[in-house]
């Protein structure tokens, strides 16, 4: 029996699809997690539906996990992580096991936003510009900084829009930093670095490049146009398709960037703004995109990026061929009012809308307050079409059919 180890997963289903693919390839699935409760919002694609063996363990404690590997006497063919917080522990374990994984120093350069900003600044590259930025370790440091507004504050090692705020003035900034100072762990039990970036706000359209490492090096699979909501820049919609690339040489720029960082494994999700004729780098995520973007990419191009990442973990590569030229979109359902969302009706009718591929609603009841991160989203609708407009129209038609039962406190 062949064994594949998954250390935690993400909550939008990418990791559980990888488990399904690995099972089809004949692997026994081992799932290690700190707490199964963090997956309670997942319904159809809960990791327990696919895992053959579950171990409850501190997944941030690399030494403890090494001990468990020795104790279990299982010969793992590969090891995978699908969230930001476990990329480095998994890379360390892959090195320990002698299986495929990230170069740890390259991973740190990409994973920690302040390290990436300084590294790229020192390289003086021109194919990706960066906003002006400051790195701070304590809220009091902003007193002596010259900051232009609006600006963005973000923690150097969180994701899902957690801790991100667009600040219009110094009062906003100081308030946001005081709130952030109180937050020492995130929802995934990850202990935050206690460092923040304060960045110039770049006005422009946001995109991401979905990159895959192949036998021939990095390859651009698709470009995603992104939509965010509110002062915390919570991602609320994405669309991908054949005519969304804003620059003719985007693939070459992304390849150069990833090679500069030293990344040579897995996938990468490069976020950037376009302002005028310039690309401004937001961040480099050395992993598959979240928010179901790999699912959109497969609908639009025919390339299953998740399968390719699973194969890489066991040292195999398949040719990547775009077999489709479609558009695929997702819109996240945001609570329109505060209260407890207890029920939803109209799902059956919404599923029948032409072009709709999937509707997912998180576990109800759900208490909705201010929308400050991706954890405040109620669910999502995915659709495809022969144009961006058609895909988005299908989603909107389906969302309009959903009727929510809300109890106001």
Properties at a glance:
409 residues; Rossmann fold; Dna Ligase, domain 1; D-amino Acid Aminotransferase, Chain A, domain 1; 4 domains; 11 helices; 19 strands; 30% strand; globular; Biotin carboxylase; LAL_C2; nucleotide-binding
In short:
This is Biotin carboxylase. It is built from 11 helices and 19 strands.
Describe the structure.
With 409 residues, this protein is of the alpha+beta class. It has eleven helices and 19 strands. The chain has helices spanning 14-24, 62-72, 87-97, 104-111, 113-123, 170-182, 250-261, 293-301, 305-313, 347-351, 388-400; strands at 2-7, 27-33, 53-56, 76-80, 133-136, 151-155, 165-167, 196-200, 205-214, 217-229, 234-240, 267-275, 278-285, 327-333, 339-345, 356-361, 366-368, 379-385, 403-407. The strands form four sheets. The chain has an eight-stranded antiparallel beta sheet, sandwiched between helices. The protein has a four-stranded parallel beta sheet with strand order 3-2-1-4, sandwiched between helices. Helix 1 (14-24) links the parallel strand 1 (2-7) and strand 2. It starts with a strand and ends with a strand. The mean pLDDT is 95.
């Amino acid at each position: 029996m062949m064994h594949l180890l998954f250390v935690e997963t993400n909550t939008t289903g990418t990791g559980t699809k990888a488990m399904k693919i690995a099972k089809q390839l004949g692997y026994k699935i081992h799932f290690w997690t700190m707490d199964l409760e963090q997956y309670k919002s997942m319904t159809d694609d809960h990791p327990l539906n696919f895992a053959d063996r579950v171990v409850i363990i501190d997944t941030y404690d690399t030494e403890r996990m090494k001990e468990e590997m020795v104790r279990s006497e299982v010969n793992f063919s590969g090891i995978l992580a699908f969230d930001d917080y476990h990329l480095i522990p998994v890379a360390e374990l892959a090195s320990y096991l002698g299986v495929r994984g990230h170069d740890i120093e390259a991973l740190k350069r990409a994973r920690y936003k302040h390290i990436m900003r300084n590294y790229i600044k020192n390289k003086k590259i021109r194919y990706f510009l960066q906003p002006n930025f400051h790195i701070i370790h304590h809220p009091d440091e902003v007193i002596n900084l010259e900051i232009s507004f609006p600006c963005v504050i973000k923690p150097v090692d969180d994701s899902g829009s957690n801790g991100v705020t667009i600040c219009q003035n110094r009062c906003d900034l100081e308030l946001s930093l005081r709130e952030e100072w109180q937050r020492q762990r995130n929802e995934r039990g990850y202990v935050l670095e206690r460092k923040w970036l304060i960045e110039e706000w770049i006005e422009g359209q946001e995109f991401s490049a979905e990159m895959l490492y192949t036998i021939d090096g990095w390859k651009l699979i698709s470009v995603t146009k992104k939509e965010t909501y509110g002062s915390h820049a919570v991602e609320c919609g994405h669309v991908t398709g054949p005519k969304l690339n804003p620059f003719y040489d985007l693939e070459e720029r992304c390849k150069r960037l990833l090679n500069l960082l030293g990344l040579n494994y897995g996938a990468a999700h490069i976020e950037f703004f376009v302002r005028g004729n310039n690309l401004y780098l937001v961040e480099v995520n050395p992993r598959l995109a979240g928010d179901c973007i790999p699912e959109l990419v497969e609908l639009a191009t025919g390339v299953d990026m998740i399968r390719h990442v699973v194969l890489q973990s066991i040292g195999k590569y398949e040719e990547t061929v775009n077999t489709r030229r479609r558009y695929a979109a997702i819109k996240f359902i945001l609570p329109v009012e505060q209260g407890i969302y207890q029920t939803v009706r109209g799902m059956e009718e919404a599923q029948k809308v032409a072009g709709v591929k999937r509707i997912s609603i998180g576990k109800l009841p759900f208490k909705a307050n201010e929308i400050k991160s991706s954890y405040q989203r109620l669910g999502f609708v995915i659709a495809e079409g022969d144009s961006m407009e058609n895909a988005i129209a299908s989603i909107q038609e389906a969302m309009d059919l959903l009727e929510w039962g809300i109890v106001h406190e």
